[in-house]
Amino acid sequence: MTTSIVHSLEPITLVGGGNASVEDVLDTVNRAPICVAADGGAALALRAGVDLTAVIGDFDSLAPRLRHALPPDRLHHIPEQNSTDFDKALRNIDAPLVLAVGFTGARLDHMLAVLYVLTKYPERPCLVIGADEVTFLCPPRLSLPTQAGDVVSLFPMGPVGGRSEGLRWPIDGLTFGPLTQIGTSNEATGPIEIEVDAPHMLVMAPLAQLDALIQALVSAPPAARWTARAERYRDPPQS
Questions:
Q1: Cα dihedral sign for 102, 227, 192, 95?
Q2: Mean pLDDT of 4-11
Q3: What secondary structure, in 3-state letters, does the chain show?
Q4: Can you tell me the distance from the alpha carbon of 70 to that of 227, in angstroms, rounded to the nearest whole number?
Q5: What pTM does this model have?
Q6: Most exposed of 113, 157, 213, 232 (fewest Cβ within 10 Å)?
Q7: Cα separation of 9 and 100, whole Å?
Q8: What torsion do the CA atoms of 149, 150, 156, 159 make, to the nearest 10 degrees?
Q9: What integer best gives the mean pLDDT of the chain?
Q10: pLDDT score at 238
Q11: Rounded distance, CA 186 to CA 190, Å?
């Protein structure tokens, strides 16, 4: 069984090397003060003056000067090349919620890999914070105080059904799948409730819902959380 590198009873900030500013990092750290960087994301975190609990990755984008400037016991080198640094970091963080900043924009293949990882680890709730929206794997049940007109996009990464209240186009009775039915550009008519029957549905919600999402995911009881998938990647020994 894999042992996580970082353990916390509170939400954790995870910083990547994508599109994000110092202000974005500070805003996220104000909500989740314990900060971890995925490889080159350490540069942005240090520019923001944040104390890093850990840096996790293959270190191919971590500048040597930063590597030497950080305490050795905070550097966790995972050299394998079969997974992204976001994957390496998320699977090694044991916390009720991860707020990921710096993982959007730049390259489309990197963003697609982030979406894949969100689905790969359903038992590790994670909010990927972008410029205007928050992307996450929908839990079994979700309630949000959205406003009429808010865009709420649903994108399935596998077969999934469910029900909804407060969406302009309800999802009741639909069978979603990446090659059959998607739900982009749905719209709230007010507060929404969504239930899904499998850990396959990604949700894109307005950034204004970030604090409500944090509260909803952190306070969710065990019955409202997904469990780990049967097959799991196992880390090789670190060096």
A1: negative
A2: 96
A3: CCCCCEECCCCEEEECCCCCCHHHHHHHHHHCCEEEEECCHHHHHHHCCCCEEEEEECCCCCCHHHHHHCCHHHEEECCCCCCCHHHHHHCCEECCCEEEECCCCCCHHHHHHHHHHHHHCCCCCEEEECCCEEEEECCCEEEECCCCCCEEEEEECCCEEEEEEEECCCCCCCEEECCCECEEEEEEEEEEEEEECCCCEEEEEEHHHHHHHHHHHHCCCHHHCCCCCCCCCCCCCCC
A4: 35
A5: 0.94
A6: 232
A7: 17
A8: -60
A9: 93
A10: 44
A11: 12
pLDDT attached to residue 2? 59
CA angle 48, 121, 78 (to 5 degrees): 60
pLDDT in tens, 164-203: 999 999 999 999 999 999 999 999 999 999 999 999 999 9
Q: What digits encode the pLDDT tens for the residues 17-68? A: 999 999 999 999 999 999 999 999 999 999 999 999 999 999 998 888 888 8
Each domain of the chain, given as residue ranges in start order, spans 6-131, 141-196
C-alpha torsion angle, residues 225, 90, 137, 17 (rounded to 10): 150
Q: Phi and psi at residue 25, in whole multiples of 5°?
A: -65, -45
CATH number of the domain at 6-131, out of 3.30.360.10, 3.40.50.10240, 3.40.250.10, 3.40.50.10490?
3.40.50.10240
Amino acid at 170: P
pLDDT top residue among 204 and 110: 204
The number of C-alpha atoms within 13 Å of 202 and in the hemisphere containing its C-beta is 25
Which token pair is 88? 């390496």
What proportion of the chain, given as a percentage, has pLDDT over 70? 95
Q: Encoding tokens for residue 214?
A: 């944090």
